[in-house]
Amino acid sequence: MTDFDHDVVIDQILELGDGLGFEVQKEFTVMRGCRIDAIWRSRVANLGTISYAFEVHRKGSRDSAILNLQRVRRDPTIQKVVVVSTRDELNRFRLEIESLDEGFRTAVGYFEVQDLQRALDHLQTLKDILKTLGLLSSDGLLD
Fold first, then answer.
1. CATH code that applies to domain 6-136
2. What are the extents of the domains in the chain?
3. What is the tens place of the pLDDT at every residue in 31-79?
């Protein structure tokens, strides 16, 4: 895949997160002047909130996106920051990020747009199977 619609991909990220049971939010402001495209959150009993931040990058400044992800990473609830783009663009991000500190490098995930679509397809298949088993209704898990 060489190009994609930025807003459609953000909506797909939200759909996947919601389907996996996360609380999702679009265009989340982490701090003044620092906004990310999407966030997934989950409350874990004794651990508090864990979050995953997603930045969809179609074109533009990678440096600006990396700086934004570094700022997002300062939020203690953020477990992983994820760049979502094409394979070629993700490789460019990897090259730029490899010279940064290890803590940040290991906090960054790379999600290809094609893999996002595959994940959504598999999620739908799983939901269909669970519905067939009577474990899932159209509204969610059965009581």
1. 3.40.1350
2. 6-136
3. 787 889 999 999 988 878 999 999 999 988 899 899 999 999 988 889 9
pTM, two decimal places:
0.88
CB 60 within 8 A of CB 71: no
pLDDT digits (tens, 9 = 90+) for 94-140: 999 999 999 999 999 999 999 999 999 999 898 889 889 988 876 66
CA distance 62 to 57: 8
Q: Which residues contact 110 (CB under 8 A, 6 or more apart)?
A: 82, 83, 90, 93, 94
Single-letter code of the amino acid located at 17: G
